[in-house]
Protein backbone atom coordinates (compact mmCIF):
# COMPACT_ATOMS: atom_id res chain seq x y z
CA UNK A 1 0.00 0.00 0.00
CA UNK A 2 1.43 3.42 -0.88
CA UNK A 3 2.29 5.89 1.85
CA UNK A 4 0.74 9.34 2.25
CA UNK A 5 -2.77 8.17 1.53
CA UNK A 6 -5.30 10.96 1.17
CA UNK A 7 -8.95 10.81 2.24
CA UNK A 8 -11.62 13.46 2.67
CA UNK A 9 -15.20 14.15 3.71
CA UNK A 10 -17.40 16.11 1.30
CA UNK A 11 -20.38 17.99 2.73
CA UNK A 12 -22.09 21.38 3.06
CA UNK A 13 -21.69 22.46 5.81
CA UNK A 14 -18.96 20.20 7.12
CA UNK A 15 -16.96 22.09 9.76
CA UNK A 16 -18.87 20.39 12.59
CA UNK A 17 -17.68 16.93 11.53
CA UNK A 18 -15.51 14.88 13.88
CA UNK A 19 -14.61 12.36 11.17
CA UNK A 20 -11.04 13.71 10.82
CA UNK A 21 -10.40 13.28 14.56
CA UNK A 22 -11.71 9.73 14.43
CA UNK A 23 -9.92 8.57 11.28
CA UNK A 24 -6.61 10.20 12.18
CA UNK A 25 -6.64 8.36 15.52
CA UNK A 26 -6.97 5.07 13.65
CA UNK A 27 -4.19 6.01 11.23
CA UNK A 28 -1.85 6.74 14.16
CA UNK A 29 -2.77 3.52 15.97
CA UNK A 30 -2.08 1.45 12.84
CA UNK A 31 1.06 3.34 11.83
CA UNK A 32 -0.45 4.47 8.51
CA UNK A 33 0.84 7.60 6.78
CA UNK A 34 -2.44 9.22 5.77
CA UNK A 35 -4.45 12.43 5.99
CA UNK A 36 -8.18 13.07 6.22
CA UNK A 37 -9.60 16.47 5.27
CA UNK A 38 -13.01 18.15 5.38
CA UNK A 39 -14.14 19.82 2.18
CA UNK A 40 -17.12 22.18 2.23
CA UNK A 41 -18.59 21.61 -1.21
CA UNK A 42 -21.64 23.47 -2.49
CA UNK A 43 -24.10 21.24 -4.39
CA UNK A 44 -23.29 22.81 -7.75
CA UNK A 45 -19.57 22.10 -7.25
CA UNK A 46 -19.89 18.42 -6.32
CA UNK A 47 -19.01 16.96 -9.73
CA UNK A 48 -15.97 19.17 -10.14
CA UNK A 49 -14.76 18.32 -6.63
CA UNK A 50 -15.05 14.58 -7.25
CA UNK A 51 -13.09 14.95 -10.48
CA UNK A 52 -10.38 16.91 -8.66
CA UNK A 53 -10.11 14.31 -5.89
CA UNK A 54 -9.70 11.56 -8.46
CA UNK A 55 -7.13 13.52 -10.42
CA UNK A 56 -5.13 14.37 -7.29
CA UNK A 57 -4.89 10.75 -6.18
CA UNK A 58 -7.26 10.53 -3.23
CA UNK A 59 -7.74 6.93 -2.12
CA UNK A 60 -11.28 7.37 -0.84
CA UNK A 61 -13.98 9.78 0.25
CA UNK A 62 -16.85 10.03 2.66
CA UNK A 63 -19.96 11.93 1.66
CA UNK A 64 -22.43 13.62 4.00
CA UNK A 65 -25.36 16.06 3.93
CA UNK A 66 -26.57 17.20 1.42
CA UNK A 67 -24.72 15.05 -1.13
CA UNK A 68 -25.60 11.42 -0.28
CA UNK A 69 -28.13 11.05 -3.06
CA UNK A 70 -26.81 13.64 -5.51
CA UNK A 71 -23.44 11.87 -5.62
CA UNK A 72 -25.07 8.81 -7.19
CA UNK A 73 -25.05 10.58 -10.57
CA UNK A 74 -21.26 10.95 -10.50
CA UNK A 75 -20.33 7.35 -9.72
CA UNK A 76 -18.80 5.01 -12.28
CA UNK A 77 -20.04 2.02 -10.28
CA UNK A 78 -22.47 1.36 -7.41
CA UNK A 79 -22.13 -1.63 -5.11
CA UNK A 80 -25.12 -3.62 -3.82
CA UNK A 81 -25.49 -1.47 -0.69
CA UNK A 82 -25.70 1.79 -2.66
CA UNK A 83 -28.25 0.28 -5.03
CA UNK A 84 -30.38 -1.02 -2.15
CA UNK A 85 -30.31 2.11 -0.01
CA UNK A 86 -30.32 4.68 -2.81
CA UNK A 87 -27.57 6.74 -1.20
CA UNK A 88 -23.77 6.83 -1.01
CA UNK A 89 -21.69 7.84 1.99
CA UNK A 90 -18.40 6.21 0.92
CA UNK A 91 -16.53 6.43 -2.37
CA UNK A 92 -13.72 4.05 -3.29
CA UNK A 93 -11.28 5.51 -5.82
CA UNK A 94 -9.09 3.15 -7.84
CA UNK A 95 -8.26 2.19 -11.40
CA UNK A 96 -11.91 1.27 -12.01
CA UNK A 97 -12.99 4.83 -11.23
CA UNK A 98 -15.40 6.02 -8.52
CA UNK A 99 -17.36 3.28 -6.77
CA UNK A 100 -20.23 4.32 -4.50
CA UNK A 101 -20.88 2.34 -1.31
CA UNK A 102 -23.22 2.80 1.64
CA UNK A 103 -21.81 1.95 5.07
CA UNK A 104 -24.35 3.93 7.10
CA UNK A 105 -26.74 1.00 7.50
CA UNK A 106 -23.92 -1.32 8.54
CA UNK A 107 -22.69 1.21 11.10
CA UNK A 108 -26.16 1.72 12.56
CA UNK A 109 -27.02 -1.97 12.82
CA UNK A 110 -23.62 -2.94 14.22
CA UNK A 111 -23.78 -0.28 16.92
CA UNK A 112 -27.29 -1.37 17.90
CA UNK A 113 -26.26 -5.04 18.07
CA UNK A 114 -22.79 -4.78 19.64
CA UNK A 115 -23.30 -2.00 22.17
CA UNK A 116 -27.03 -2.15 22.97
CA UNK A 117 -28.05 -5.72 22.04
CA UNK A 118 -30.94 -4.43 19.98
CA UNK A 119 -32.26 -4.99 16.48
CA UNK A 120 -35.06 -3.49 14.37
CA UNK A 121 -36.32 -7.04 13.77
CA UNK A 122 -40.00 -7.40 14.75
CA UNK A 123 -39.95 -3.88 16.24
CA UNK A 124 -42.28 -0.94 15.69
CA UNK A 125 -39.91 1.66 14.28
CA UNK A 126 -40.31 5.40 13.73
CA UNK A 127 -37.96 7.24 11.39
CA UNK A 128 -37.71 11.00 11.98
CA UNK A 129 -36.41 12.57 8.77
CA UNK A 130 -36.43 10.86 5.39
CA UNK A 131 -33.41 12.41 3.70
CA UNK A 132 -30.32 10.42 2.71
CA UNK A 133 -29.65 8.90 6.14
CA UNK A 134 -33.33 8.47 6.99
CA UNK A 135 -34.03 6.68 3.72
CA UNK A 136 -31.08 4.35 4.31
CA UNK A 137 -32.03 3.45 7.86
CA UNK A 138 -35.71 3.02 7.02
CA UNK A 139 -34.82 0.53 4.30
CA UNK A 140 -32.32 -1.17 6.64
CA UNK A 141 -35.01 -1.60 9.30
CA UNK A 142 -37.40 -3.07 6.72
CA UNK A 143 -34.65 -5.40 5.50
CA UNK A 144 -34.10 -6.58 9.10
CA UNK A 145 -37.75 -7.53 9.51
CA UNK A 146 -39.28 -4.58 11.37
CA UNK A 147 -42.97 -5.12 12.09
CA UNK A 148 -43.94 -1.52 11.38
CA UNK A 149 -42.14 1.59 10.10
CA UNK A 150 -43.65 5.06 10.55
CA UNK A 151 -42.05 7.66 8.30
CA UNK A 152 -42.02 11.30 9.40
CA UNK A 153 -40.72 14.19 7.30
CA UNK A 154 -41.58 17.87 7.09
CA UNK A 155 -41.83 17.52 3.30
CA UNK A 156 -44.45 14.82 2.93
CA UNK A 157 -43.32 13.83 -0.58
CA UNK A 158 -39.95 12.64 0.77
CA UNK A 159 -41.59 10.25 3.21
CA UNK A 160 -43.93 9.00 0.50
CA UNK A 161 -40.96 8.35 -1.79
CA UNK A 162 -39.19 6.29 0.88
CA UNK A 163 -42.34 4.21 1.31
CA UNK A 164 -42.38 3.57 -2.44
CA UNK A 165 -38.69 2.59 -2.42
CA UNK A 166 -39.18 0.10 0.43
CA UNK A 167 -42.04 -1.53 -1.48
CA UNK A 168 -39.96 -1.67 -4.68
CA UNK A 169 -36.70 -2.94 -3.18
CA UNK A 170 -38.16 -5.21 -0.49
CA UNK A 171 -41.55 -6.44 -1.69
CA UNK A 172 -41.48 -9.39 0.72
CA UNK A 173 -40.57 -7.36 3.82
CA UNK A 174 -43.15 -7.86 6.60
CA UNK A 175 -43.19 -4.23 7.75
CA UNK A 176 -46.37 -2.20 7.60
CA UNK A 177 -45.29 1.20 6.24
CA UNK A 178 -47.04 4.33 7.50
CA UNK A 179 -46.45 7.80 6.09
CA UNK A 180 -47.27 10.37 8.76
CA UNK A 181 -48.87 13.74 8.23
CA UNK A 182 -46.47 16.66 8.58
CA UNK A 183 -47.86 17.90 11.88
CA UNK A 184 -46.53 17.64 15.46
CA UNK A 185 -49.58 15.82 16.86
CA UNK A 186 -49.27 13.00 14.32
CA UNK A 187 -45.56 12.61 15.01
CA UNK A 188 -46.02 12.58 18.79
CA UNK A 189 -48.79 9.98 18.63
CA UNK A 190 -46.76 7.69 16.36
CA UNK A 191 -43.66 8.15 18.49
CA UNK A 192 -45.43 6.97 21.65
CA UNK A 193 -46.38 3.75 19.87
CA UNK A 194 -42.85 2.99 18.63
CA UNK A 195 -40.33 0.64 20.21
CA UNK A 196 -37.36 2.10 18.32
CA UNK A 197 -37.23 5.78 17.31
CA UNK A 198 -34.45 6.84 14.93
CA UNK A 199 -33.76 10.57 14.70
CA UNK A 200 -32.23 11.26 11.27
CA UNK A 201 -32.64 15.03 10.84
CA UNK A 202 -29.92 17.64 11.43
CA UNK A 203 -31.68 18.78 14.62
CA UNK A 204 -29.05 18.88 17.35
CA UNK A 205 -26.06 19.91 15.25
CA UNK A 206 -26.30 23.27 17.00
CA UNK A 207 -26.34 23.59 20.78
CA UNK A 208 -29.41 25.85 20.79
CA UNK A 209 -31.58 23.60 18.59
CA UNK A 210 -34.99 22.80 20.01
CA UNK A 211 -35.77 19.09 20.43
CA UNK A 212 -37.58 17.58 17.48
CA UNK A 213 -40.28 16.18 19.79
CA UNK A 214 -41.34 17.07 23.36
CA UNK A 215 -41.02 14.70 26.33
CA UNK A 216 -44.73 13.85 26.06
CA UNK A 217 -44.00 12.11 22.74
CA UNK A 218 -41.86 9.47 24.47
CA UNK A 219 -42.46 6.78 27.07
CA UNK A 220 -40.65 4.25 29.23
CA UNK A 221 -39.46 1.14 27.44
CA UNK A 222 -38.57 2.96 24.24
CA UNK A 223 -35.15 3.31 22.67
CA UNK A 224 -34.23 6.54 20.86
CA UNK A 225 -31.26 6.41 18.50
CA UNK A 226 -30.26 9.95 17.48
CA UNK A 227 -27.73 9.81 14.63
CA UNK A 228 -26.41 13.27 15.59
CA UNK A 229 -23.15 12.75 17.47
CA UNK A 230 -21.73 16.24 18.11
CA UNK A 231 -23.22 16.38 21.62
CA UNK A 232 -23.16 13.75 24.36
CA UNK A 233 -26.86 14.42 24.94
CA UNK A 234 -28.70 15.90 21.98
CA UNK A 235 -31.87 18.01 22.39
CA UNK A 236 -34.13 15.15 21.27
CA UNK A 237 -32.30 12.75 23.59
CA UNK A 238 -33.10 15.10 26.49
CA UNK A 239 -36.80 14.87 25.67
CA UNK A 240 -36.69 11.08 25.52
CA UNK A 241 -34.69 10.74 28.73
CA UNK A 242 -37.06 13.09 30.56
CA UNK A 243 -39.88 10.67 29.73
CA UNK A 244 -37.92 7.66 30.99
CA UNK A 245 -36.94 6.27 27.58
CA UNK A 246 -33.44 5.04 26.80
CA UNK A 247 -31.54 7.26 24.37
CA UNK A 248 -28.13 7.32 22.71
CA UNK A 249 -26.36 9.52 20.19
CA UNK A 250 -24.85 8.44 16.87
CA UNK A 251 -21.18 8.26 17.89
CA UNK A 252 -21.14 4.46 17.61
CA UNK A 253 -22.74 4.57 14.17
CA UNK A 254 -20.07 7.05 13.06
CA UNK A 255 -17.30 4.74 14.27
CA UNK A 256 -18.66 1.58 12.68
CA UNK A 257 -19.58 3.19 9.36
CA UNK A 258 -16.12 4.78 9.32
CA UNK A 259 -14.47 1.43 9.99
CA UNK A 260 -16.46 -0.13 7.15
CA UNK A 261 -15.41 2.73 4.86
CA UNK A 262 -11.78 2.18 5.83
CA UNK A 263 -12.04 -1.49 4.87
CA UNK A 264 -13.47 -0.45 1.50
CA UNK A 265 -10.58 1.93 0.91
CA UNK A 266 -7.65 -0.14 2.16
CA UNK A 267 -8.71 -3.76 2.67
CA UNK A 268 -7.61 -3.44 6.30
CA UNK A 269 -9.48 -3.31 9.62
CA UNK A 270 -9.58 0.06 11.32
CA UNK A 271 -8.74 0.46 15.01
CA UNK A 272 -12.27 1.05 16.27
CA UNK A 273 -11.16 1.40 19.90
CA UNK A 274 -8.83 4.26 18.99
CA UNK A 275 -11.54 5.82 16.84
CA UNK A 276 -14.15 5.75 19.62
CA UNK A 277 -11.75 7.03 22.26
CA UNK A 278 -10.74 10.00 20.12
CA UNK A 279 -14.34 10.73 19.22
CA UNK A 280 -15.59 10.58 22.81
CA UNK A 281 -12.74 12.81 23.99
CA UNK A 282 -13.54 15.44 21.38
CA UNK A 283 -17.28 15.37 22.11
CA UNK A 284 -16.49 15.77 25.82
CA UNK A 285 -14.22 18.75 25.15
CA UNK A 286 -16.80 20.37 22.90
CA UNK A 287 -19.59 19.91 25.44
CA UNK A 288 -17.43 21.11 28.32
CA UNK A 289 -16.43 24.22 26.41
CA UNK A 290 -20.06 24.89 25.55
CA UNK A 291 -21.14 24.50 29.20
CA UNK A 292 -18.50 26.99 30.38
CA UNK A 293 -19.62 29.79 28.09
CA UNK A 294 -21.33 32.68 29.91
Describe the protein's architecture and organization.
The chain has 294 residues and is of the alpha/beta class. 41% of the residues lie in helices and 19% in strands. It has 10 helices and 12 strands. The chain has helices at 19-30, 46-55, 80-85, 104-116, 132-143, 156-169, 184-193, 235-242, 251-266, 272-292, and strands at residues 5-11, 34-40, 60-63, 77-78, 90-94, 97-101, 124-128, 148-152, 176-179, 196-199, 223-226, 246-248. The strands form 2 sheets. The protein has a 6-stranded mixed β-sheet with strand order 2-1-3-5-6-4. The chain has a 6-stranded parallel β-sheet with strand order 9-8-7-10-11-12, with helices on both faces. Helix 8 (235-242) links the parallel strand 11 and strand 12. It is globular and about 50 Å long. The relative contact order is 0.14.
How would you summarize the topology of this molecule?
Layout: E1 5-11, H1 19-30, E2 34-40, H2 46-55, E3 60-63, E4 77-78, H3 80-85, E5 90-94, E6 97-101, H4 104-116, E7 124-128, H5 132-143, E8 148-152, H6 156-169, E9 176-179, H7 184-193, E10 196-199, E11 223-226, H8 235-242, E12 246-248, H9 251-266, H10 272-292
Parallel strand pairs: 1-2, 1-3, 4-6, 7-8, 7-10, 8-9, 10-11, 11-12
Antiparallel strand pairs: 3-5, 5-6
Helix pairs in contact: 1-10, 4-5, 4-9, 5-6, 9-10
Number of helices: 10
- The order of strands across the largest sheet is 2-1-3-5-6-4
CA-CA gap between termini:
49 Å
How many whole angstroms does the radius of gyration measure? 19 Å
Amino acid sequence: MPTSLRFALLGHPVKHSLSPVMHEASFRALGIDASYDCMDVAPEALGACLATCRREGYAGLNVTVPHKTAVLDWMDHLDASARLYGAVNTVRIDAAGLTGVNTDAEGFLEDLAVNYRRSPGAARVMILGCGGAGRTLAIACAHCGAAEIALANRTLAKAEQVAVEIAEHLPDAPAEIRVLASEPAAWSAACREADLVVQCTTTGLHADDAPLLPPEAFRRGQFLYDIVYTQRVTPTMRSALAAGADAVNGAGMLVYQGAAAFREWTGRDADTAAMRAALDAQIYLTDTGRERRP
